[in-house]
């Protein structure tokens, strides 16, 4: 592979954007690089943050375990989104509902345990005579 | 008095970085406009070209030892060797660098210093005795069962 097929710096002109989209095998309308704040992304495309779990399990992928086709641009965090790791599939219950339930429960239990530690309560006992 | 229309199910779901919107709630699923179909056709054309290149190599009677995936090579290059040339110092990157590099160092310096000052104060006030060499070498029962 020659160096002009490798990732490069952030594209500034529309011609550079079109060339970068062609390099990454994407449509020019689909190609969206990461914002240019000097973090080191260059012209790598910003793909939607979806894990490989969400891809069609019944489609004949070129690489079925990765659910990835040959030549298809890979997400920057591809190694996080494989099917052994992070999963962004839609959940039955919305995320904000789940986090609300969890943190309210956790907070209540922590408060109760904290109060119980500060103000312990036990059956009154008499000390054994020495 | 008419109230505002109920928020859509997609707005109620509030997808974020960790969960995506289900396809059933996404209005894009039900969009059959010609623009969308043209976009899908163009993507399919690109995909077909790539698949053809891949299958030509795969079904070659004398195939290459390894069929290189250019997307994988570009991904590895972008994450390893393209970071330094495309990095530049900005206020945001300078702040992040200071936070991640200097932050933990200064934090642990402060914590350990404060803890040692606390122990030194207790030694000076003679509420605990500094350990003798034999105590350090043996099991420190006094510290455990105070």
TrEMBL record, chain A:
InterPro entries: NDUFB8. Coiled coil: none annotated. Keywords: Membrane, Transmembrane, Transmembrane helix. It holds the Pfam family NDUF_B8. It comes from the Eukaryota. The chain crosses the membrane at residues 102-122. One of its GO terms (cellular component) is respiratory chain complex I. PANTHER family: NADH DEHYDROGENASE [UBIQUINONE] 1 BETA SUBCOMPLEX SUBUNIT 8, MITOCHONDRIAL, NADH-UBIQUINONE OXIDOREDUCTASE ASHI SUBUNIT. This is NADH:ubiquinone oxidoreductase subunit B8. It comes from Ficedula albicollis (Collared flycatcher).
UniProtKB/TrEMBL annotation, chain B:
Complex I is composed of 45 different subunits. The keyword Heme does not apply. The chain crosses the membrane at residues 94-112. It comes from the Eukaryota. GO terms for cellular component: mitochondrial inner membrane. Belongs to the complex I NDUFB4 subunit family. It holds the Pfam family NDUF_B4. Accessory subunit of the mitochondrial membrane respiratory chain NADH dehydrogenase (Complex I), that is believed not to be involved in catalysis. Complex I functions in the transfer of electrons from NADH to the respiratory chain. The immediate electron acceptor for the enzyme is believed to be ubiquinone. This is NADH dehydrogenase [ubiquinone] 1 beta subcomplex subunit 4. Keywords: Electron transport, Membrane, Mitochondrion, Mitochondrion inner membrane, Respiratory chain, Transmembrane, Transmembrane helix, Transport. It is a single-pass membrane protein. InterPro entries: NADH_UbQ_OxRdtase_NDUFB4_su (IPR009866).
